[in-house]
Amino acid sequence: MGRFEFVNPEYFWLLLLIPLLLIWQIFTWQKKQAAVRISSVSGFKSNGANWLAKLQPILVVLRMLALAALIIGMARPRMVDTSTQSRNIQGIDIVMAIDVSASMLAKDLRPNRLDALKEVAAQFIQNRKNDRIGIVVYAGESYTKTPLTIDKDILLKSLHDIDFGQIKDGTAIGLGLATSINRIKESDAKSKIIILLTDGVNNTGFIDPNTASEMAKSLGIRVYTIGIGTNGMALSPVAINPDGSYYFENIQVVIDEELMKEIAKETGGQYYRATSSDKLEEIYEEIDQLETTEIEETEYVHYDEKFPLFIIAGFILLAIEYLLRYTIFRSFI
Question: What pLDDT, in 10s, does the model give residues 279-295?
Answer without folding.
Answer: 999 999 999 888 876 65
